[in-house]
Input
Amino acid sequence: MNQNITPDPNPPSGAPCDPGLVSRRRFLTRISVALGGVCAAIIGVPVVGFVVAPLFRRVPETWRTVGAADDFKIGETVSVVFRDPSPLPWAGVTAKAGAWLRRDATDKFTAFSVHCTHLGCPVRWMADANLFLCPCHGGVYYQDGSVAAGPPPHPLIRYDVRVFNGKVQIKSAPIPITTTL
Amino acid sequence: MKRICGGIWHWLDDRLGISDLLGPPLKHLVPREATWWYVFGSATLVAFIVQVVTGVALAFSFVPSSSQAYDTLRFITNEAPFGAFLRGLHYYGASAMVLMIGAHMAQTFLFGAYKYPREMSWGTGVLLLGFTLIMGFTGQLLRWDQTAAWSVVVAAEQAGRVPLIGDWLAKFILGGTTIGGATLSRFFAIHVFLIPACMFAFIGLHLMLVLRHGISDAPVPGKPVDPKTYQQEYHAALEKTGVPFWPDGAWRDFVFGTLVVAAIALLAWYVGPPAIEHPPDPSILQADPRPDWYLLWYFAVLAMIPPRIEGVVMVGAPILIAFIILLAPILGNKGERHWSRRPWSIGVVLLSVLMIGSLWIEGANSPWSPNFNARPLAPAVIGTTNAEVVRGAKLFHDHACLNCHLISGHGGRRGPDLTYVADRLSKDDMIVRIVNGGNNMPAFGNMLKPDDLNAIVAFLESRHQARTVATAAANP
Output
């Protein structure tokens, strides 16, 4: 007669253990844990990949027109607005970016990032003082973007600028992240 | 009717096992002396529940899209019934949670309640404090106005200081290389799903540990914790003098919790939620981003760290502080618990409060920030009709000197108060300082014409106490 006998899972203390049973249980434990790991990997790998994908998204650095060259007076520094290189469709106003643009000569422009190199706050141009001031922690920059005072570790980042078909174009770039270590 | 209700209850209780589940935790014995000092933990839980309920309600109308969140928040605040009140409840609930968790932690530390066998209760509590602060910061970002958008940039810049992986972390925070469509939605996911899930798990663990090890008895001078005998003595005392948590211990939690909810509601109703500022347009540069009050102290820290060690402090200090706090029970899990036998514990708490309090005041005043609202000095402040001095006063404003220096209470506080500068600096000293800069002041040598420099110096030379007193007498 064929009988299914389930071994007592809690044999009395001191009872001899069947080596085969121990081995089977060890196997079942390991296979269960392994299957759990496989399930976690099946779900986890795409989840982690999806969440960290923006880190690896290649963003093209694109020339963006910010106005006609004739609209800018020589020696004047003004804020200009341009769009991100590749904004997501639902970005709305956050697709905009700003820069400080100065016309140094007829065909020479300089564009500064608006981000203070201390912690990224938007610097303001004080026209009469010829200084950029940061509202957050008091960073000050000279008109060439070099640090004049306060905590900024580096000069203001500059964008590439060109005049193309009479239009001033700025090459959009990522927000400059200061890494000091 | 009573019989029918009773019957239904007994049926449900029999099938669901509610009494079996909740009975033992509610009836577990707590020390009789666990009085009003012990209400801060439950008050933190009450504030958390307020956050969960109001947060879920707000999520019914909030659209976590970079292009629409700002408008939905304006709708919630200005048009939705009870919208402003709900936002206020959520904001002051967060404030209450930060305050209560701080008070709970200070009480636990002063009472030595982190010692054996409650080391892990302390550890989970410290993690919950961290989660609470992350919730506070990410919650401010979900307001998705100008300050929120720039705060994301500040957070990314700080993350950028982390060695090796800083750039990656910054991109993770921004959702790319700039603020954009991906930025807000990831903070929404973190604020609404990820961190709350961690909080639910750790609150559950924290409460389970409270039940496992019991509420700590009041510290008694001369009665140190000895891990060999503590459990036995604790349970013997409980058997002798303990009272059931429900209702003998819990009523104080309910009274204090109700007061917390009432305070949150009153503030939400009468003061209202924080204003929704300008839209999150990164091209609007007239921004002055500041964190919410509970992180203002850290804002001050970031301004006051010497630049040479800034990167190390920005990354290392939070890790070191968290490590030390987590390590507290490992460093001293036995011995005296009463604060009178651990005077240094009072010192630590007082120093922490004083440090955070004074940094908070500095953060609120932000004396290191230029005053962009400085108006040209009025004739009464200039105090003379001398043409050169008047022109100097105008130049002092136009060249942004007034943004950083005070003149008779007008201007900024970033640099020294120059109201009586002529009493301490000679004309030559003034010229040297202005031309060469130094001590956190830009050099104006290349930016000022000689005539303008002379005019500004003439104005500064007129800033002495005797003149001010005379002017005040002439213009009572």
Observations:
- Chain A has a mean pLDDT of 88.
- The CA atoms of residues 77 and 102 of chain A lie 4 Å apart.
- The first helix of chain A runs from residue 19 to 56.
